[in-house]
Write a structure and sequence with these properties.
Layout (H helix, E strand, L loop, with lengths): L1 H13 L23 H25 L4 H25 L13 H19 L1 H7 L6 H23 L2 H6 L1
Amino acid sequence: WLEMIVHPVSALAFEGEPGPADLMKRLPRDPRAPLIRRAHVIRSAFSGALLTIAALVEYAARLDRGETYARAAAMVVVILGSLFLMWAELAGDRPWWRTPPPARVAFWVVSVLVAASLPLFMTVGPIAALLRIEPITTRDWAIAGLLAILPVLWRVVGTDIGLQRCLSE
């Protein structure tokens, strides 16, 4: 499920989006500079680690309801968190909440389909059985959604306390 959904959505998010308006006015990139700056690698790795921890916490917290329930709740964290992180990564070094929405229709179609796949896969018997998941309560959807946004929210707090600047130096 992750390979068929998360990676294509990420590819759609990063491929085909127009560059910044001032791109052609910028000086060329130093050919000796790395393609991906260390700060971006650290930021992405930290966000991914937070998402992993959030999913594991949700899984462990829901194990009392059974393994299939806990797996479903953790999957909600992972899938929604991936969508949130994709939006934050599109922002680059700009604040993600000030980034204009992606203009490509394909981005929105795939994003909506990914989000809709969560409740659909939980309720369609053969798919739920294959994935070994089951529907979760509205309360647990809300908790999973809050956990899923943590890997993006740290960037807001990090910006406020200068963490982003420290990472880029």
